[in-house]
Amino acid sequence: MAGAQDERLAIAVARAGGLGSIPAAMLTPEQLSEQLNRFKASNEAYAHAPTLPVNVNFFAHHATEADTEQTERWLTVLTPYYDEFGINPQEIQSGASRAPFSAAMADVVEHFKPQVVSFHFGLPETTLLQRVKATGARIISSATTVREAVWLEQQGVDAIIAQGLEAGGHRGHFLSDDLSEQMGIFALLPQIVTAVRIPVIAAGGIATIDGIRAAMSLGAAGVQIGTAYLLCDEANTSPLHRVALQSETAQHTALTNLFSGRPARGIVNRVMRELGSIRNDVPSFPHASTWIAPLRTVAEKQGLTDFTPLWAGQNTQGCQSMGAFDLTQQLIQAFN
Amino acid sequence: MAGAQDERLAIAVARAGGLGSIPAAMLTPEQLSEQLNRFKASNEAYAHAPTLPVNVNFFAHHATEADTEQTERWLTVLTPYYDEFGINPQEIQSGASRAPFSAAMADVVEHFKPQVVSFHFGLPETTLLQRVKATGARIISSATTVREAVWLEQQGVDAIIAQGLEAGGHRGHFLSDDLSEQMGIFALLPQIVTAVRIPVIAAGGIATIDGIRAAMSLGAAGVQIGTAYLLCDEANTSPLHRVALQSETAQHTALTNLFSGRPARGIVNRVMRELGSIRNDVPSFPHASTWIAPLRTVAEKQGLTDFTPLWAGQNTQGCQSMGAFDLTQQLIQAFN
Questions:
Q1: For chain B, which residues lie within 8 Å of any Cβ of chain A, measuring from their own Cβ?
Q2: Residue A195 scores a pLDDT above 70
Q3: Strand A264-267 with A169-170, pairing
Q4: pTM higher than the cut 0.90
């Protein structure tokens, strides 16, 4: 949910009895500290409750340098769009918008001691992981295949998120780039539950009370819900993204690497239709975002989502324009 | 399950209280009649039960002529394999192995009056469909998107099979060839249930009692299970296919059009790895099967599944080497 939410959504979810998450992949350590300070202050002001837990989510990819030749080829692909929207590609400031977990972020974790720390794209290097473990945080990470789940258990994580193909946003795969290995949650979840001994949290396509009950039938110890919260008052989902989520177009999502360089699920829009959702000539993660971001900015000013990553899972049935506290209390009834 | 079972599996399932199916897509009308006669005779010999129902499944694709130029290009792709296995492509007898529902098949339906007739790839033309309806058969067909489900309801089917992306064998899509529209059953099922008023049967990834319960939580009126029956005593699954289903390789299935010309899910094997699972230069359905079949035959004699369509869903957890009667009775406990 990086980019679509901050601590406000996490506070509302936590107050309702869920585990609220703060996505840190697009934040600087200073920004994350500010959010955690606000979460803490809100906690202290909330007299009725004990200290509410929070999860902080980090990306754990291996940072790579941008490849100049690859970038040049990609700019050629995008040139017609730059021309159409009056953008001079020479003036685009490059800058990776998503950074992997780092020593500076470990400092923040050590200072705030969040109860749960989760990772996407595997796990950070051992030294950094040990620092997180030493704070007493429960550590969880996403698996998209049985092999990844077994690997994560071997690394000593406390729980595994089984991320079904239905899930919105970035796929968490890290042992293989072969997208054909990605499974629907109905097939993935029970196989991971059988393969590991630690708790498994189901993610992807779960949008309603019935969905939660179904996931629990398949052996989940809990569920992770993203898309259903995108219309919540506390989410930072843009107005254009909200319109798309509530329209017929939300019926058709696809995995695409055009926006960041890694496959992520979003509502199909113009650039995905015209260029193809998955391409081999896209700059590596996260550098692709540098080159599409200016197109997004200019197009959005014209009310167009042609270049906007409209992250969403395959099931938008649970999306409701309401407070996240009420939505969470609604969903939590599945456990009664 | 065309090719992997005949009326023997249907009889065992029916006796245990399920709705047994006879796949007719690879049968001549005479062969289907023989199977239905044997089903009927078995029924009559089975003194304890009332007349057991049966479902006959047909394909409803639009038959196309093979394209000579396309075939030539495809033969070039396969030439290294023909050379390796000592096959002279000039000697290959072309012949479509899968025929759409026809007037001759409607004759068979009128004669035997199966209680249920199901279709894959949409529905046959109106005249033929009316003939089936007039027999009193309940008609069902597969939907892979919400749009297909709504379309089928408008055509007057009695129930819809929601075929999740996890399912083994041929995808049933018929309104769009865009595979990115295909959804996991966890997302597809509840959205179809909301969109139509007729019963929805869940298919894809359902392999166990827990899986059935989960599907029912998501609004299914029933479930269709295929992969879990592939190891049953009564299935015609080949020994090599059985070995693959029980091995680690079953963890990795993919959609492929190499074997028939239409995307179908099977365990990844040599030809899928080497040529890529989905290609644009494959002859149209069902003509592709003509050109790969001889490779399969020769390779299988050497104990190789390099060219064998190892149809399987993403969840082989339910596969058990046992009688289909016992397996069905086991699964049916989900409804108690």
A1: 145-147, 164-166, 180-181, 183-188, 190-191, 194, 204-208, 210-211, 213-215, 217-219, 251-255, 268, 277, 313-315, 317
A2: yes
A3: antiparallel
A4: yes
- All residues of chain B having their beta carbon less than 8 Å from the beta carbon of residue A203 are none
Interface probe for A, chosen from B173, B175, B186 (most Cβ of A below 10 Å), is: B186
Count CB pairs under 8 A between chains A and B.
Answer: 122
Q: Are the Cβ atoms of A190 and B315 closer than 8 angstroms?
A: yes
User: Which DSSP state fits A262?
Assistant: S
Closest to A162 measured CA to CA, from A229, A254, A100, A224 = A224
Q: How do B169-170 and B159-163 pair as beta strands? A: unpaired
Cα–Cα distance for residue pair B188/B201, rounded to 1 Å:
11
Cα–Cα distance for residue pair A159/A202, rounded to 1 Å = 11
Helix (H, G, I), strand (E, B) or coil at B80: helix
Tokens found for residue B11: 């009889």
Is B315 in Cβ contact with A186 (below 8 Å)? Answer: yes
**H helix intervals, chain A:** 7-15, 29-45, 68-84, 103-112, 126-134, 146-154, 185-195, 209-217, 239-245, 270-275, 288-301, 324-332
Asked if residue A95 has pLDDT above 80, the reply is no
For B102-151, write each residue's pLDDT tens digit: 999 999 999 999 999 999 999 999 999 999 999 999 999 999 999 999 99
Q: Are A81 and A295 in contact (CB under 8 A)?
A: yes
Q: What is the pLDDT of residue A49?
A: 59
Please give the pLDDT value at position B96. Answer: 61
In angstroms, the separation between the Cα of residue A297 and the nearest Cα of chain B is 27
Q: Find the chain A residues whose C-beta atoms sit closer than 8 A to any C-beta of B.
A: 145-147, 164-166, 180-181, 183-188, 190-191, 194, 204-208, 210-211, 213-215, 217-219, 251-255, 268, 277, 313-315, 317
Judge: B190–A206 Cβ closer than 8 Å, yes or no: no
CB contact under 8 A, A214 and B215: yes
Nearest to B186 among A146, A184, A254 (CB): A184
Q: Which residues pair with B285 in a beta bridge?
A: none
pLDDT, tens digit, for every residue of B56-87? 999 999 988 889 999 999 999 999 999 999 99
Residues of A in contact with B180 (CB under 8 A): 252-255, 268, 277
Structure tokens at B110: 């009128």
Q: A204 in the Ramachandran plot: left (φ > 0), alpha (ψ -120 to 50) or beta?
A: left
pLDDT at B49: 59
Give the whole-angstrom CA distance, residue B31 versus residue B33. 5
List Cα–Cα distances, B116 to A224, B111, B159, B312, in angstroms: 40, 14, 10, 24
